[in-house]
Amino acid sequence: MTSMTAQKKNAPMLGDTLHASALDAGIASSVESLLSLQRADGHWVFELEADATIPSEYILLQHYLGTVEPEIEGRIARYLRAVQGADGGWPLFFGGETNLSASVKAYFALKAAGDPPDTPHMQRARAAILARGGARRCNVFTRIMLALWAEVPWRAVPVMPVEIMLLPGWFPFHVDKISYWSRTVLVPLLVLMAMRPKPRNPRGVTIAELFVEPPETVRDWISPPTASAVGHGFVLLDRLLRVAEPLFPIEPRRRAIEKAVAFVSERLNGEDGLGGIFPAMANALMMYDALGYPPEHPYRADAAAALRKLVAEADESAFCQPCVSPVWDTALACHAMMEVGDERLTPAVRKGLDWLRDRQVLDTAGDWASVRPGLRPGGWAFQYANPYYPDLDDTAAVALALDRFDGARYRNAIDRAAEWVLGMQSRNGGWGSFDADNTHYYLNHIPFADHGALLDPPSADVSARCLGFLAQLGTEPTHPAMAAALDYLRAEQEPDGSWFGRWGTNYIYGTWSVLAGLNAAGVDTGAIEIRRAVDWLIARQRPDGGWGECGESYWPDEPHGEASYSTASQTAWALLALMAAGEVGNPAVARGIAYLLASQDSDGNWDEPWYTAVGFPRVFYLRYHGYRLFFPLWALARYRRLSLANSPRVVFGL
Length: 654
What we know:
This protein is mainly alpha-helical. The protein has helices spanning 20-36, 53-65, 70-82, 100-112, 120-131, 140-148, 180-195, 229-244, 250-266, 278-290, 298-308, 326-340, 346-357, 392-406, 411-423, 460-472, 480-492, 507-520, 528-539, 568-580, 587-599, 627-645; strands at 13-14, 17-18, 48-49, 90-91, 98-99, 311-314, 317-320, 613-616, 620-624. The protein is built from 22 helices and nine strands.
């Protein structure tokens, strides 16, 4: 966790023109800092912080299993107290409004950790929760957790019978039709929902005080996630299943549980964990526990070890990460270092790229193969290992770096990546993150999907990265895949000229991603879509010269690209976008560079408590601790390179 008190430097300026010495010094200081964080084997990895829910769930999981680690629990509890909001609740991102579900989990975790309910911070938390309708109003996944803890009846959650594991692929609902993260979270959860195990709960903790009315008296728990006829139809189906489920025969249930367990065990991924993400890992561990696997069983031991490796410890506190991001961090750090253009950095970059090359998934046909059978694997995962779930965004970013650094050295890896990326293009011309044509939108209407993130449809940011990669390899704009991608991106442009950012916050991120891709594809900078995007970005520059955008922009009718603050990473995205559009000489760019230099601390870094990434819009936000390091360096170095070369635009795909 970063300090908010680092000393700031003053960047010398003359009007809108920066002294070259200040720029050189800022770049050199940032390079030194980033180099110092490279691991011995060549990779970079930074902490990945979510909201209070994941650390809270880590504490609650230990109490559920009866495996409490007092020292770790105490440090995580200290973290939870530190991130409590001013009104007593917990937000989804720094500076955001209180979120009911996050607050219920944090209160429950702190009470389990020993915080008395009558202490001031617990009283304030309870008041904030009750003012928002109490724990009954939590989202579905929180209510499932409460049902596992016997805090609410099982009728409080939608029916998801484990027998869905036996459904054929053509059926309207099938696990292959939902996203990878939904799949890995849901399958072990189906076993838990079928078995309904009881928590160990060694301290006998309950949270009945968080309900406005006793949960057992609530009759109407399930409501459609949308007010559409389809949503109401799924609610009716839920009620029918609730009546029928007790009558399901025993033998199909046994086979369904066996199939679910086999699915999890095949993808368990050793100590890197099921799907590489906390919720799936936690559900897998609870599933093995419910089935009676002893702690020393290899599957259960691996699941427990994978979760423990997610704990990030600093000073006297700790938090649990939702996952780790070494491939993504290393690829972006290498891009930033290459932008500097200093031959002395070549060994460090080569070491990082060699580390990445060795992690390409070449032998495992993951879940994506269900819709692309016969396609050879060739992608990269986000984590250290996650072979069933390579990521198209990571794959494009890694392959772009390999090609830029030394296309001949990494030719085999680049070619396999291109083959896989081309094969994973969806029918609408775009790319999703992990699957192709994952667009069964009717599934977003089921009550279980109230978080709105059941699917993995194509998005502008990932699609632009894939477009940029193919363009950098020399694929002509007239190639069918390129033409379809360009049509998709143009159709996705917002009326105000921006693009939505699925994996970064938000329209600034999406607009940078798309302008970089269009630049690589050779789209003329005078094209109307580029001019509209440039006008939008310049209009969003803040008085201090930076850019900022808050998490609220994911809600309908909220402003795009606006915040009451500027951030280093979002400023860097805006600058990279403008330079990709040929605007290196625009005064707005000089002001943005000045902001980065003025806000850089004496160690060459930038303070950034803000959450500038997202897991699930409006539900789950992320703070990549590396973004404040490599993105500003990238923007500063690109500005220097283009200014010295007197070049109007960059020619790389990212």
